[in-house]
Amino acid sequence: MHIPGIPQAGGFTITSTPKDAELLPSPETPESLPAREDGLPPIHPRGREPYVELAVQKSPSNPPAAWLWRPKEEILGKELSIRVGGSFVWPPTGIGLEQIRNVVFVAGGVGIK
Fold first, then answer.
1. pLDDT of 13-69, one tens digit each?
2. Using an 8 Å Cβ cutoff, are 63 and 8 in contact?
3. Who's near 43: CB < 8 A, 6+ residues apart?
4. Of 103, 102, 56, which Cα lies nearest the Cα of 75?
5. Cβ atoms of 68 and 56 closer than 8 Å
6. How many CB atoms lie within 10 A of CB 68?
7. What are the backbone dihedrals phi and psi of residue 96, each rounded to the nearest 5 degrees, phi first?
8. Which DSSP string corresponds to 55-85?
9. Which end of the chain has the smaller Cβ count within 10 Å, N or C?
């Protein structure tokens, strides 16, 4: 994530699904739907606004994280740039499943179950 005015990029974990970032049509305007207590866009059975949800650890020494932990009134409506990166391919390119006998996956971070 790139925040204007902060040269350091923040690396945060996306906790929403790719589908959440798609615009889903709704027969009603968001203003006519009931407000949610969690602050997320209103949910209608046939649609909602797109969004990206991030897990951001409170870290005063990390400028992008510290910026995101400011009061919501100070950051709502501000423009941010998000770039999704990384990749994982299984099976690895050039290796057939019949060649694989054992596999050990080691992972860490938010969302690992």
1. 888 888 888 776 555 555 666 666 777 666 665 566 788 888 888 889 989 999 999
2. yes
3. 33, 36
4. 56
5. yes
6. 21
7. -85, 155
8. E----TTSHHHHHHTS-HHHHTT---B----
9. C
